[in-house]
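User: Reviewer 2 asked us to show a designed sequence for the structure in our supplementary figure. I'm pasting the structure tokens here. Could you produce the per-position amino acids so we can include them in the response letter?
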């Protein structure tokens, strides 16, 4: 029994692996079954399919489209049936595994049974028959001795060696010797055999001979012995016929066909008497037939794909001839009737079969060019298209020769020539002629028709020429004459293309019939000068009788005029012919570098050329008309000056006319006198005329549209610091761009020049007056300003302590006004000029009185105040009023005049600031009318206490004596203006005023000298010593002032009996900004720091009675005091820890406090828990709640904060410390910056809360004000009176955050205490306190962010745990205890942010 094992697939297989070969024979007695592997079956199917596809790819290209489709469908059907059967077999095989396994087991068991029975039978037969007579053979002693002694077995039979071991191969030398002998036999055979001459190209090598006939075949033969009777043996046959155009790179003869031919040739080699001749005839005949078939196939494809009806197959007989027709005019539709048909026939010579394919033409080809004839009679390239092209190429050459003969007949000196590469006749039209200017006449190789081509010619005209010369070739002569004038016109157009011109063939003139312009030649060109639209250059083109290829040009100058405006017809004015010798003029002017011996080239026709010259291929300079270009350039350059001179003469401006400058390459017009300007004084006119040395106008730039007027002036009245303005004479260059709509040199240029001269004159008058006043300029103005630049067109003054600001003065001709421009220079470059806010007012003032000295005085007086005013906040803010989404501007700066600035605070209060000389300003309440202080300006409210607040900033050295109470009580009675003037004279008399003379009627303000030193003449009075009175100033206040012992007399103060405020301050109105008070010089040593830090030992200012008109009287402040008043600074009289982070100026704090006091009055009237208490004190608001009595008033020490004084109604639970915390919280967190209405409203709601709730809130306020007193807490607390932006979305930010009903809702902001310097974590906690149950818990408000939600959950848990551990008792408030617990125990996980 054969050993078996279990295979990898679970089947029983014989030991040694499964059967991989073909099917095994069945065992004896088993049913005969044959099987095949599935992989082998799939491989057979794939090979069969691939074989059929290969056959289709080789056979289908030779069949028709319908046959190809039928074969493809049949192949697809057969293949599909096979693979469907295979699919069914595979599906069955996948389901027959178990049956197959059982059958295999049964077969295996049957086989084992048979083997067992057969083995027993064989053993029994062996024992009974064979072993009975069996004997051992004799021992092989010799063989054993050989093996044991020698280790070999040499006694094997020789038949084993002869039948198994192959003989040794022959050596290379033997092979080479054999091949050489075979080569000798082949050569002998070739010499003794009749060899055709076509097989002369042979090669004998390696025992074989190779015959090669180019383009037909290659045969390799040999002989099998040296006997002459042994026939030739054909080893290899290769067909060399190729179809390089339509064969797609494949062999033209199938391998089966080659094998058939191989067998046929071999048979003839064995049977024929002349084997090689017969072989050649057979193969040559086959190759010629194949070549003819290839040419026929190419013809069909040529007709189908490219040529179409241009070539036709007349007749094709396989293996005989192929006839084609070309240039069939009837088919092309060019002519009707009979016409010659050009035929090309390709045939096999029947008389001599050894010849190649023969070519014949009908009609025969002309004997024009041997090379063309030779190419048209050969077909060795086996390309029918190339053959047809060579044929029509030769016929095209013949047609062009006929056309050239016609040209030669009409013009004996014709220089036309034929190009053979592409049949083309090149005809020069106008000599000298460039290659692109020649008329090229092609012959269409497909149709045999003439096709003209000329660069730039209209296609319609080319079509006409083509039709004409194809009908009659002699009519080309007339066309050449027309093209000559056309080309001459094109040359003229190209010559002036780079110049500012417009060319036209026709010019419509209203008087062309009566004007000489109507008599010009028929062929002419009008060239319009675009910069001078009223001028034209006319070019006439005339025939030259002796030379048909030459033209004569005649040039004329034409001027036209426009009738009835711009859209009316044109009328010819002047027609003037240029001189005929322009070419010499061009050479003289443009060819200055030409050597003396050079000669001008002769024109065509001067003398006959011995040989015709071909047109130039490069350069193309012969097409450039130098005379015309020179004329256009000369007119374009000179005519603007002529037009400008005409305009100057029309405007009666004397000039010297057009002058030639330099080497004659430039022109200029020199003015003798410029007309005087209106609005300028006679003295200024004379001074400017004396200083003007020269005035010249030139053209500049490549486009000739830029005019430059050069003015040379001397005796400049001002000396500037600019490095280019130090010479004795100044050159001023005025540039004008001529408008495109205006002719160059027209009236517009002269008007612009006169406008600039007017601007120079106006500015010169100001500068002249300024220069006269310079010797008397005060010293502080000399230090304050300098003349940086004066170039007669603008004056640049730099001013300031560092001269970092600049003002530029120019005269604007369009608006006929002076224009001022402000800027910064030097280190301040890039910053904003502080005077920009009053630029409009400065400009108006300067135009009313163009006085430079007065302008510098105003700039000096206003620079420091404007620097301070610019520091005020002007950005709109939200949340200032009850409507949180409405923005209000904090300060609005409203300039009224150069020295009068009005400040509007939140659209409610108005402050007027008047800038005065000598470093002081006057400030008043702008809500009062300037003309009647009993009337209020509409839209503004008086600011109560403003006078008292401003007096705190008055310098004692400037105002030595306070007003008395009687002066405030009794307003001054009105007096006349003359009394005011007399008072001014009395005040200025002891000061020895210094006056300045001003030019042109300018009046400068009086400047006074400083008074004697104050400290040298005044001894301190006892009232100036330190006192401990209750009204003493806080030592920390920076606004303490001295006792008013001496005060300067100011014309507007109530000390002076004078007119009413409306008449008394007439100098402060915008119409009279030059009123100045006799204030000491701010540059004196005592005026520098008196307003910055005042003595702390001075008593507080007297509390003056509040009079409604008191603030309308101006208060005098120095610039330093104004700077302190408007500069943002910390709130005074507050501990630094209690002051807020919002910095604002003292003026903003005062006005904000006044607004908050106004808001408080309205809030008290609206709150039900608050009631107003009448008070006799001005500026004091008193109200009360159920248990508290409150008094709100401005801080008497500085008037910058609003203070709350709280006293309980009766002795209750309130301690002085709690009341003090409540007052401090009001002053620092409620009534302080940024002065919000809702903050104050929320605080008043807290005041109306029950006592126990209010006390807990006060204790929370204490933790906020004094966080250091609770160092054991982890968080700092802030009581939010308005909803912060980061709060939960319950209401818009800025809304009142305190709600008091049956429950109380308020917001706290907790900030984590972190010792290390990093950003602390802050969370907003909404707290709800239930007055009925006494529970304090977090308000349930949906959160958006996960981090804030986690913090809110922890806060809620802490408050819930506190409520559980500390149950409420009757009358006890748990707000503070719950908040304290939260601040002590709240711990957020890392990364939690609000």
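Assistant: Here is a per-position design you can include in the supplement:
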């Amino acid at each position: 029994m054969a050993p078996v094992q279990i295979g990898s697939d679970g089947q029983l297989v014989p030991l040694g692996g499964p059967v991989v070969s073909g099917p095994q024979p069945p065992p004896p007695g088993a049913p005969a079954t044959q099987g095949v592997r599935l992989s082998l079956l799939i491989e057979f199917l794939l090979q069969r399919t691939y074989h059929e596809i290969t056959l289709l790819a080789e056979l289908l290209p030779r069949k028709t489209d319908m046959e190809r489709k039928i074969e493809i469908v049949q192949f697809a059907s057969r293949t599909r049936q096979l693979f469907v059967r295979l699919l069914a077999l595979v599906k069955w095989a996948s389901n027959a595994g178990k049956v197959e396994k059982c059958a295999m087991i049964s077969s295996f068991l049957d086989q084992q049974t048979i083997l067992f029975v057969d083995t027993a039978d064989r053993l029994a037969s062996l024992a009974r028959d064979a072993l009975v007579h069996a004997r051992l053979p004799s021992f092989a002693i010799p063989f054993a001795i050989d093996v044991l002694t020698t280790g070999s077995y040499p006694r094997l039979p020789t038949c084993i060696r002869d039948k198994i071991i192959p003989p040794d191969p022959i050596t290379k030398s033997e092979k080479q010797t054999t091949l050489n002998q075979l080569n000798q036999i082949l050569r002998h055979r070739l010499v003794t055999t009749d060899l055709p001459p076509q097989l002369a190209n042979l090669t004998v090598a390696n025992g074989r001979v190779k015959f090669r006939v180019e383009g037909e075949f290659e045969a390799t033969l040999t002989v099998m012995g040296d006997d002459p009777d042994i026939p030739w043996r054909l080893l290899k046959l290769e067909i060399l016929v190729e179809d390089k155009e339509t064969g797609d790179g494949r062999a033209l003869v199938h391998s089966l066909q080659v094998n058939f031919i191989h067998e046929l040739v071999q048979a003839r080699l064995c049977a024929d008497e002349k084997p090689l001749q017969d072989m050649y005839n057979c193969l040559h005949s086959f190759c010629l037939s194949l070549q003819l078939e290839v040419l026929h196939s190419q013809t069909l494809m040529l007709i189908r794909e490219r040529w179409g009806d241009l070539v036709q197959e007349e007749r094709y007989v396989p293996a005989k001839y192929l006839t084609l027709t070309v240039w069939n005019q009837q088919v092309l539709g060019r002519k009707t009737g009979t016409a010659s048909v050009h035929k090309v026939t390709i045939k096999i010579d029947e008389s001599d079969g050894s010849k190649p394919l023969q070519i014949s033409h009908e009609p025969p080809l002309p004997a024009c060019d041997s090379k063309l004839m030779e190419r048209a009679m050969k077909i060795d390239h086996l390309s029918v298209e190339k053959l047809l092209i060579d044929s029509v190429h030769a016929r095209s050459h013949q047609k062009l020769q006929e056309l050239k003969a016609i040209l030669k007949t009409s013009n004996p000196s014709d220089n036309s020539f034929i190009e053979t590469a592409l049949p083309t006749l090149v005809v020069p039209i106008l000599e000298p002629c460039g290659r692109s200017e020649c008329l090229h006449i092609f012959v269409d190789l497909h149709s045999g028709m003439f096709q003209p081509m000329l660069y730039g010619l209209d296609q319609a005209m080319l079509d006409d020429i083509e039709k004409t010369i194809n009908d009659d070739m002699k009519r080309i002569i007339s066309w050449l004459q027309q093209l000559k004038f056309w080309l001459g016109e094109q040359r003229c157009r190209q010559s002036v293309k780079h110049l500012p011109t417009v060319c036209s063939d026709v010019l419509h003139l209203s008087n062309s019939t009566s004007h000489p312009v109507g008599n010009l030649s028929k062929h002419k060109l009008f060239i319009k000068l675009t910069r001078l639209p009223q001028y034209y250059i006319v070019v006439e083109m005339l025939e030259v009788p002796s030379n048909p290829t030459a033209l004569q040009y005649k040039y004329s100058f034409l001027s036209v005029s426009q009738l009835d405006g711009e859209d009316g017809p044109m009328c010819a004015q002047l027609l003037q012919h240029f001189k005929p010798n322009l070419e010499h003029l061009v050479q003289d002017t443009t060819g200055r570098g030409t050597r003396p011996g050079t000669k001008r080239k002769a024109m065509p026709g001067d003398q006959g050329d011995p040989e015709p010259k071909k047109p130039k291929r490069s350069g193309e300079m012969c097409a450039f008309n130098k005379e015309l270009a020179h004329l256009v350039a000369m007119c374009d350059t000179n005519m603007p000056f002529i037009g400008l001179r005409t305009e100057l003469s029309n405007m009666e401006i004397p000039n010297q006319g057009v002058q030639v400058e330099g080497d004659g390459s430039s022109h200029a017009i020199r003015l003798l006198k410029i007309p005087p300007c209106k609005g300028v004084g006679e003295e200024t006119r004379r001074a400017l005329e004396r200083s003007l040395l020269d005035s010249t106008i030139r053209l500049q730039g490549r486009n000739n549209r830029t005019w430059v007027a050069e003015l040379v002036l001397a005796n400049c009245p001002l000396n500037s610091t600019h490095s280019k303005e130090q010479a004795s004479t100044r050159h001023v260059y005025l540039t004008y761009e001529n408008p495109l709509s205006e002719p160059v040199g027209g009236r517009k240029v002269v008007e612009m020049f006169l406008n600039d001269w007017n601007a120079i004159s106006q500015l010169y008058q100001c500068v002249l007056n300024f220069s006269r006043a310079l010797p008397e300029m005060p010293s502080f103005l000399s230090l304050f300003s300098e003349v940086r630049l004066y170039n007669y067109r603008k004056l640049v003054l730099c001013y300031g302590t560092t001269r970092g600001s600049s003002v530029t003065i120019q005269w604007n001709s369009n608006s006929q006004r002076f224009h001022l421009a402000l800027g910064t220079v030097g280190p301040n470059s890039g910053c904003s000029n502080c005077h920009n806010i009053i630029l409009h007012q400065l400009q108006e003032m300067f135009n009313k009185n163009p006085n430079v000295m007065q302008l510098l005085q105003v700039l000096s007086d206003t620079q420091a105040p404007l620097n301070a005013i610019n520091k005020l906040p002007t950005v709109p803010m939200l949340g200032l009023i009850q409507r949180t989404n409405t923005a209000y501007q904090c300060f609005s700066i409203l300039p009224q005049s150069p020295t009068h600035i009005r400040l509007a605070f939140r659209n409610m209060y108005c402050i007027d600031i008047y800038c005065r000389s000598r470093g002081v300003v006057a400030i008043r309440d702008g809500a009062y009318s300037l003309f009647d202080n009993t009337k209020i300006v509409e839209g503004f409210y008086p600011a109560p206490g403003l006078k008292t607040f401003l007096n705190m900033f008055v310098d004692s050295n400037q105002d030595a004596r306070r007003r008395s109470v009687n002066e405030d009580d009794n307003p001054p009675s009105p007096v006349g203006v003359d009394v005011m003037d007399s008072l001014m004279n009395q005040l200025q008399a002891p000061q020895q005023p210094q006056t300045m003379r001003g030019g042109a009627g300018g009046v400068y303000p009086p400047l006074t000298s400083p008074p004697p030193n104050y400290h040298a003449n005044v001894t301190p009075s006892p009232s100036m010593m330190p006192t401990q009175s209750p009204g003493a100033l806080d030592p920390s206040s920076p606004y303490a002032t001295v006792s008013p012992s001496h005060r300067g007399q100011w014309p507007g103060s109530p000390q002076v009996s004078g007119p009413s405020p409306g008449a008394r301050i007439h100098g402060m109105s915008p119409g009279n900004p030059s009123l100045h008070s006799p204030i000491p010089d701010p540059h004196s040593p005592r005026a520098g720091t008196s307003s910055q830090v005042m003595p702390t030992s001075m008593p507080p200012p007297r509390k003056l009675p509040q009079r409604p008109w008191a603030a309308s009287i101006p208060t005098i402040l120095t610039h330093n005091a104004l700077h302190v008043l408007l500069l943002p600074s910390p709130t005074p009289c507050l501990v630094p820890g209690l002051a807020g982070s919002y910095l604002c100026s003292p003026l903003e704090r005062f006005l904000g406090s006044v607004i908050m006091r106004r808001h408080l009055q309205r809030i008290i009237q609206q709150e039900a828990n608050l009631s107003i208490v009448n008070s006799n004190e001005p500026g004091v608001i008193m109200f009360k709640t159920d248990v508290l009595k409150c008094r709100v008033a401005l801080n008497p020490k500085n008037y910058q904060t609003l203070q709350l004084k709280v006293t309980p109604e009766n002795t209750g639970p309130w301690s002085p410390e709690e009341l003090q915390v409540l007052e401090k919280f009001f002053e620092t967190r409620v009534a302080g910056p940024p002065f919000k209405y809702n903050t104050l409203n929320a605080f008043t709601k807290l005041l109306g809360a029950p006592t126990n709730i209010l006390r807990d809130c006060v204790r929370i306020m204490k933790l906020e004000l004094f966080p250091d007193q609770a160092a054991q807490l982890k968080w700092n607390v802030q009581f939010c009176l308005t909803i912060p932006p980061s709060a939960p979305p319950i209401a818009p930010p800025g809304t009142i955050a305190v709600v008091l009903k049956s429950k109380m809702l308020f917001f706290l902001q907790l900030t984590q205490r972190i010792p290390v310097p990093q950003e602390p974590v802050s969370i907003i906690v909404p707290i709800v306190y239930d007055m009925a149950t006494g529970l304090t818990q977090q308000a349930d408000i949906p959160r958006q962010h996960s981090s804030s939600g986690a913090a809110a959950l922890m806060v809620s848990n802490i408050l819930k745990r506190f409520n559980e551990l500390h149950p409420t008792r009757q009358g006890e408030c748990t707000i503070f205890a719950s908040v304290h617990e939260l601040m002590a125990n709240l711990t957020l996980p890392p990364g939690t942010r609000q």
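For the response letter, you might also mention the following. Residues 1140 and 1229 are 7 Å apart (CA to CA). The radius of gyration is 62 Å.
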